[in-house]
Amino acid sequence: MCGIVGMYNKTGRGVDEQVLERMHAQIVHRGPDDSGVHFDGPVGLGFRRLSIIDLEGGHQPMPNEDGTVWISFNGEIYNFQELRKWLLERGHQFQTECDTEVIVHLYEEKGVDCVKELRGMFAFAIYDTKNDLVMIARDHFGIKPCYYTETADSIAWGSEIKSLLEVPGVAREVNPESFWNYLTFQYAPDPLTMFKGIHKLPAAHYMVIKGGKIKIERYWDLSFEPEDRPLSYYIEGTQEILRNSVKAHMNSDVPRGAFLSSGVDSSTIVSLLKELEQVKTFTVGFEGAGGQSEVGYARETANILGTEHRDTIITAKEYLDVLPRLMFHQDEPIADPSAIALYFVAELASRYVTVVLSGEGADEVFGGYTIYREPLSLKMFDYLPMSMRRTLGSLAEKFPEGMKGRSFFMRGGKTLPERFVGNAFIFGEQMKEEFVRMNPEAMGLRRYLDITQPYYDRAAGYDDVTKMQYLDFHTWLPGDILMKADKMTMANSLELRVPFLDKEVFEFAAKIPAHYRTMNGTTKYVLREAVRDILPKEVAERPKLGFPVPTRHWLKKEHYQWARELIDASPIDHLINKQYVMQMLEDHKNGVRDNARKVWTILVFMMWHQIYVERSVTIAPQVPPTVKTRREHNAPLVAN
């Protein structure tokens, strides 16, 4: 895993080398082992390397045999050995044993369609000097990030936004549409970022730059095609496909380990790893989390599976102290409290290993979120006219908050696109209008339903559970789950791999009928049944916690004064009514209502604004030790 940057000069002149070097310096944490830049005509490519495979080779940017095709690549290709064999048979010559060179030669054979052959996680840029074009691609699920921006005379791209902010003409200006929808989703949905003029290249897309013009194409999409087969077929097939995926994701020339939480996802990965080698596992818990702490359950699972386990407990003060650096590494606000947990567990793991496997994606692939049970519970409403459903929903809204049945009838009165916009829903449109100083209609901003509806349109032929999965795959998964996973692990120069988000795993799971995905009130039913003979029953059936953070408790006590001071000092009065936010904090502290997620979402934005817009808080990139040095001293990557 590495980091890339690049520039294309639309005037045809050479790239400003000093600008590319500054971009390059911003992502030093992504690759402490090696770095390189290459300038050729109107294009400049930059690269930072965390050495995983072919430790002595693999220097980038990397050319083909005659120097007419150059690549900078971030990620891992798990089928590179099969592709390499095919390319050798076709006469290609290789100078290294690494997966990067495979992509170069595959591009020579297939052009932009090379991306369709890749199995893995990736973001890469190829400069084809013969055809005078740049191709930039991102993997099928958005595991690896990729951003781009365009100015009057240049197009720039990179693994992190902070690099693009070094490009002349790129402003540190909040995108109002991103901010408006961030308050609902807790992240800026693809292809938006919180910066006006900076965009995400969506998952499963590639970009071609030619003649100073950008063209973006989708090369793959999710396709759910359920097959009428016995349940036993899917149970046996799931275990086999996961075992193969874990084995493929183990390929590395450096020490490996795994994150271990309380639930079935990470436990499955660890158990399958343990079949092949001794496993180092890592967990984090939080002071004040009480019975919700992952640590106790993880220790129990580690003991059963016989792993070499390490964990740590984070205090409220430690959590607060590291927040500014976290905001720096996130690039844009992601108000998921578990991002901090990921940072700490990654820091712990980075002392002992260079690669970790983790359970991200299992819920999206196998239907694991509790909310996916809702279509069945609300099925009775499908038999009622929509007008009657609306009436029942409107009547329920008048019931007192907390009254039994209120939420059930309110949600039953809505269509699926109205009631489900993804796994996080912080502020609704009406509440935003009470304190956000924006008029979406007057400003031409899309609201959250405008953002989610196109995904529902594309999933029109699917059942409701599958529609929800399809939406999460395109919004929640790349915008929250995978973004925080990449940024928090790379902040510690640690490569994270996600065996559940393997193209072959998805293509098998997509054949599982919806009634098997959620069965007898149990989510991820096929997955849980598939691992019954490799996991203890109490682990296979344990509900998901996912590194829970006691934000609700801390905002009432340990973090309350800090929150008040941050709200009071923040100069974003032009965006929101701060007194409204302050009252939400007070109501939370006094137990009037649970406003923890709402307040936290705004606090995260304020911290991000301090670092990236106001620049009143300065966080500098830290030059980490090489992986070799870190291993020898068993030391953390950076001081918090």
UniProtKB/TrEMBL annotation:
Its EC number is 6.3.5.4. Pathway: Amino-acid biosynthesis; L-asparagine biosynthesis; L-asparagine from L-aspartate (L-Gln route): step 1/1. Keywords: Amino-acid biosynthesis, Asparagine biosynthesis, ATP-binding, Glutamine amidotransferase, Nucleotide-binding. The active site is at C2 (for gatase activity). The keyword Amino-acid biosynthesis applies. The keyword ATP-binding applies. GO terms for biological process: asparagine biosynthetic process. CDD domains: Asn_synthase_B_C, AsnB. This is asparagine synthase (glutamine-hydrolyzing).
